[in-house]
Amino acid sequence: MQLKAPLSELHHQLPGCLSVALVDGSTGLVVAERSERGRGREGREDVELAASAIGPMLEGPGEAVMRALLRSGAAREVERHMLQELVVASDDRLFVFMRTRHDPDLMLVVICHASAKVGRVLALARLSLEDVALVS
Amino acid sequence: MQMPAMYAHEIEAPRTSQRRVTEVLSTIDDLESDATGELRCLAADGVVAGIVFIERGRVAWAAAPGLARRLRHLLCEQKGCDVDAEQLEDIRKQCAQTGEPFGERLVKSGLVTEAQLRAALLEHSCESLLSSGESTTRLVFQPRPSRGYGATFTFSTGELAAVVGGLLKPGVLVSARALLTRLDAPERSVVVLTRGDGAGPCPVASSQGSVFSSTELHELGTWVASALDLSSALGASPRIIAATTNARAMVALLPEGDLCGVITAPERAMGRVWGLLASN
Fold first, then answer.
1. Which of A9, A50, B23, B96 has its C-alpha lying 20 to 30 A from B178's C-alpha?
2. How remote is the C-alpha of B214 from its chain's centroid?
């Protein structure tokens, strides 16, 4: 139940936010979810779809690509390459996926209208990630 | 400097020209990063179908029978370049006497600019790779002393792969170059890929001095294909996909018709990339 609080707060702060959820990227399971009033079932379906699609995409472009980025100076040295955040903008939706720091499989998912400002969504989602980490 | 051992690689037949070129480029990627020498492309009967000269792991030039004079034509055809065949021949004779690389001498003479020479060398090497690729069945690397080619006039295998892709897909070249021009900027590396035509994404244009090798471009293309497929599973065609990594780098994909622009940049450049993509 505690998880609902930071999710609800993020949902409230973001204009155009449709759903906010915490999902397990490794299994595709939805751990907690908060959707816009009046679209509970639809929101739940959106989140479940996003949770099931995200796993393979988070594997990222692979070690060879990261080596090229490190070589070029576009990336810093890391022990293990891992995608941290993923943003997918489609014609009518903006999807943001963020790994939590304490458990890389656990992901914050934010689904907004396409008109939402990406920078604002990312900034607020990053802030709430700390709160989610405290209670999850 | 320790020279790499002689290296031989068999190519299975039959293969398309592009697959053969990809194998040549992958073989170069597998050499030591400071390898200098000749990669000989041999036909089934042992005849040399082409030679690629590698300088410190980068391609200085490729040559194929029948294309020896093609570089001069390409130089004379460069936009804004008024060099003629006689002037080129004079430079070639001077270089034969002094041992100075032809390209460097040409630029010093003021007859061509760095950009004009680079474009001509790149196209000539790619045409040679495609020509020799048709009959190549075996690759043999022979270490040679450095010829002093500077990094400005040598190419990553990724740059060559993109130009070869463009030569093989002329129908998309104009729109690919337009997309590249729109997305390219300092701090970014941009590659334009064609989207699935059965053989997976194929690079057709890239930023000058692309950070990627041919092998890395192939891996990037595989991820791009899967990211586009999975994004489509979210319910609509994706307009933009952007990912940041724990190495503080970002990769952004911009699908556009049959093409997909791929931008890689440090994470600090992400805001500007988002602004650019959102305005499209």
1. B23
2. 8
The first and second tokens of residue B261, run together, are 């622009």
Q: Tell me if B223 and A60 make a contact (CB, 8 A cut-off).
A: yes
Predicted pLDDT at B25: 95
Of the partner residues B211, B220, B239, the one whose CB lies closest to the CB of residue A74? B211
> Model confidence at B197, in pLDDT bands (50, 70, 90)?
low
Beta-bridge mates of residue A37: none
ipTM field: 0.82
Q: Which one-letter DSSP state was computed for residue A60?
A: -
Specify the DSSP class assigned to residue B2.
P
pTM above 0.90, yes or no: no
Asked if pLDDT for residue A45 goes beyond 90, the answer is no
CA distances from A43 to A20, A21, A54, B11, B180 (A): 9, 10, 17, 53, 37
Nearest to B236 among A50, A81, A90 (CB): A90
User: What tokens does B136 get?
Assistant: 């190549």
Give per-residue pLDDT as tens, B79-123.
777 788 888 888 889 988 988 888 888 888 888 899 889 989 999
**DSSP letters of A110-125?**
EEEETTS-HHHHHHHH
Question: Would you call B246 and A82 a contact, using CB atoms and an 8 Å cutoff?
Answer: yes
Mutual orientation of helices B70-77 and B114-133 as an angle, nearest 10°? 140
Query: How do strand A93-99 and strand B58-63 relate by DSSP bridges?
Result: unpaired
